[in-house]
Amino acid sequence: MSRSAASRPVLRRLFLRRLFVVVLTALGLVCAGLSSGAGPATAASAFPDTVVPAPVSETANGTTFTLPAGATLTSDDAGTGGYLAGILRASTGYALPLTVGATSPGTIALSLSGAPATVGAEGYQLTVSRTGVLIQAQQAAGLFHGVQTLLQLLPGAVMSPTVQPGPWTVAGGTILDYPRFGYRGAMLDLARHFFTVAQVERYVDELALYKINYLHLHLSDDQGWRIAINSWPNLAVYGGSTEVGGGPGGYWTQADYSAVVAYAASRFMTVVPEIDMPGHTNAALASYAPLNCNGVAPSLYTGTNVGFSSLCVSLPLTYTFVDQVLGELAALTPGPYLHIGGDEASSTSASDYATFIGKVEQIVTAHGKSVMGWHNIADAGTPPAGAQAQFWDTTTSAPNLAAAAANGTKVVMSPANHAYLDMKYNHRTKLGQTWAGLIDVNTAYGWDPGNYLTGVTGSEVAGVEGPLWTETIVTSADIDYMAFPRLPALAELGWSPWSTHSQTAFDARLGAQGPRWKAMGVNYYHSTQISWPAGS
Ligand code: TNX
Fold first, then answer.
1. Which of 6, 19, 379, 474, CA to CA, is 20 to 30 A from 59?
2. Is 49 touching ligand 1 by the criterion CB < 6 Å?
3. What local confidence, expressed as pLDDT, does residue 25 receive?
4. Nearest CA to ligand 1 atom 9
């Protein structure tokens, strides 16, 4: 018997075995598809479940793409191309030359043509083939969000600022994605503790990873005034000179503020500045005696009580003050909203409150901006057209807000017992407060912003926002600890269709962020509700 004849049965057996495996695999894929029964999402199980917020639809194609050392980048948007190149060059060590507006696509191509109309202003389509990656969008914001998804499909080490070994492999397939809500915000309180431009830009970079598109800055409160106002210089110089606990405080110049606005814009994030009124105004009242009804300036305040201060509603100077402050802020702010606060005005009578809020709303409108305020502004009647009211309470009903919503006011959802990033995770959490409850990941994720408040329908909801009040928050490490991992939970509620909502699937996707935060040096809370990959 020749050697080849002897090996023939072996070959046949091998062939049959391989055929068997192929058939089984195909059957498995079909069954997975049938059992999930959800159209394009059926192949999602074959895509690694690592993306937060969950995309609208994913279809795996069974191939993989590995970034070669000689890869090139092309982008129709210079800023977003440069952003991606910066991250990839740092961690891969590859040259990754970037061409802006090239006619033929690079290995990774960001293109403003050919995206399906369904992606809208912020969505994108991402296609990973064996040879490259194509992100298509209608607008640059969509390219930026597609880039975030691509980064989350790559190994977590891609977020490292230093060169890592790779390989840089991505599962092949197509993702089609766009947001459920147009407003996906995060708020930082600069008043209780002061934060520098660099600290806020760091937070902006972290928020951008989760497709947050509004940055709300709480710029004034009882304990500090944080933005220079040329017509009222003592506000910043004196009113900004301390903070909770009596530290030195600080303030931003107008150039500082503009730098943050521009930096946020480079991450497709719109700044919403807040001047909280008529309560939460001790720093302003301390800076200018004539703003007080009795003409006497109170002392600066470094405690954490709320509800003791009020602008003087009957004083004409109050409205000159508001007009000049909001006028300067409006001129510095390209975004559509000025946030006028309006919360916890317990030292202002109900009728004074209504008078004051009504006048301030007109001032905002006169400066060409739309009103945003805490939901209490609805107690003063329906705000002007284009307004947004931000729900912050722990109830599920707010009748005046529902009435305003029925009259056209949009609602931003920040229920304190789910969305407040300054609540403790559990009783052992050193930072934070407990008045709205303890909020671990499951509580942060377990609610539906579009179906939460009695009498407020999904179409009346503009979106979500995670406020981070800073009575107990002092450093960037503190910010990280309170925002991560809860902020991504809120970001997913704001972006992903409710049909993708699943605590178990979310927990797995969230766990996949651990190695990214580790690579970036984000000081996140290792919630015991999540199984974090070893070493993260
Ligand atoms: C309530 S909720 C506040 C803030 C505090 C926060 C602390 C709201 C609109 N106002 O003044 O900083 O609680 O959690």
1. 19
2. no
3. 38
4. 343
Among protein residues, the one with the nearest Cα to ligand 1's atom 2 is 392
| 216 has a pLDDT exceeding 70 | yes
Query: Measured from the CB, is residue 183 less than 6 Å from ligand 1?
Result: no
Atom of ligand 1 nearest to the CA of 376: 9
Residue 56 CA to residue 59 CA, distance in Å, equals 11
CATH of domain 183-520: 3.20.20.80
Q: Please state the domain extents for the chain.
A: 43-177, 183-520
H helix and E strand count, the chain? 16, 17
Confidence of residue 46 (pLDDT cuts 50, 70, 90): low
- Predicted local confidence at residue 37, as pLDDT: 32
Distance, in Å, from the CA atom of 484 to the CA atom of 206, rounded to the nearest integer, reads: 9
> What is the phi/psi pair of residue 372, to 5°?
-125, 145
Per the annotation, the verdict on 460 as an active-site residue is no
pLDDT of residue 49: 87
pLDDT digits (tens, 9 = 90+) for 502-524: 999 999 999 999 999 999 999 99
Establish whether residue 392 lines the binding site of ligand 1, counting it when its CB lies within 6 angstroms of any ligand atom: yes
Cβ(429)–Cβ(437) below 8 Å: no
Residue range 43-177 forms a domain whose CATH class is alpha beta
**Has residue 42 got a pLDDT over 90?**
no
Residue in 344, 422, 433 to alter for ligand 1 test, most ligand atoms within 8 A of Cβ: 344
Q: What's the one-letter identity of residue 373?
A: G
Is the distance from CB of 55 to CB of 72 less than 8 angstroms?
no
For atom 12 of ligand 1, the residue with the nearest CA is 469
Per-residue pLDDT for 120 more than 50? yes
Render pLDDT for 398-421 as a digit per residue (tens, 0 to 9).
999 999 999 999 999 999 999 999
CB neighbour class for 523 (10 Å; exposed up to 12, middle 13-18, buried from 19): middle
Q: For residue 435, which atom of ligand 1 is closest to its CA?
A: 14
Q: What is the atom index within ligand 1 of the atom nearest the CA of 436?
A: 14
Confidence of residue 48 (pLDDT cuts 50, 70, 90): confident
Contact present, 219 and 274 (Cβ < 8 Å) = yes
> Are the beta carbons of 392 and 467 closer than 8 angstroms?
yes
User: Ligand 1, closest atom to CA 423?
Assistant: 14
For ligand 1, mutation pick of 469, 471, 473, 486 (most atoms within 8 Å of CB) = 469
Which residue among the candidates 206, 344, 471, 492 is catalytic per the annotation? Answer: 344
CA of 100 to the centre of ligand 1 (A): 45
Structure tokens belonging to residue 93: 């060590």
Question: Does any ligand 1 atom lie closer than 6 A to the CB of residue 344?
Answer: yes
The rounded mean pLDDT for the chain is 93
The reply to whether the predicted model has a pTM over 0.85 is yes
Long-range residue pairs from 111-119, CB within 8 A, at least 24 positions apart, any chain: 111/74, 111/76, 111/135, 111/136, 111/137, 111/143, 112/76, 112/77, 112/136, 112/137, 112/138, 112/139, 112/140, 112/143, 113/76, 115/142, 116/176, 118/176, 118/178, 119/176, 119/177, 119/178
